[in-house]
């Protein structure tokens, strides 16, 4: 599904000028039809899924209990 620049800005919760700048800088892939840019929304789904997976992994890591201290002889 393709979105206009305005729809993309609303979807990403960022200003329209920033979306346009990202398109010019090729950080967001877009198609130019001679008048307007159109952005494929599928490119954001993978990124958003990866961000959610990383958040989940960080939460799991934070919630992992610290193992009991093993008895280590002091060699000093």
UniProtKB/TrEMBL annotation:
MF terms in GO: DNA binding
Domain of life: Bacteria
Record's keyword terms, sorted: DNA-binding
Xref: InterPro entries: SinI_DNA-bd
Name assigned to this protein: DNA-binding protein
Species of origin: Psychrobacillus vulpis
Species classification: Bacteria, Bacillati, Bacillota, Bacilli, Bacillales
């Amino acid at each position: 599904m393709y979105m206009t620049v305005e729809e993309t800005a609303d979807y990403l919760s960022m200003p329209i000028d920033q979306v346009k700048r990202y398109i010019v800088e090729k950080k967001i892939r877009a198609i130019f039809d001679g008048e307007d840019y159109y952005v494929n929304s599928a490119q954001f789904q993978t990124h958003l899924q990866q961000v959610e997976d990383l958040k989940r992994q960080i939460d799991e890591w934070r919630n992992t209990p610290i193992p009991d201290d093993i008895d280590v002889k002091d060699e000093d």
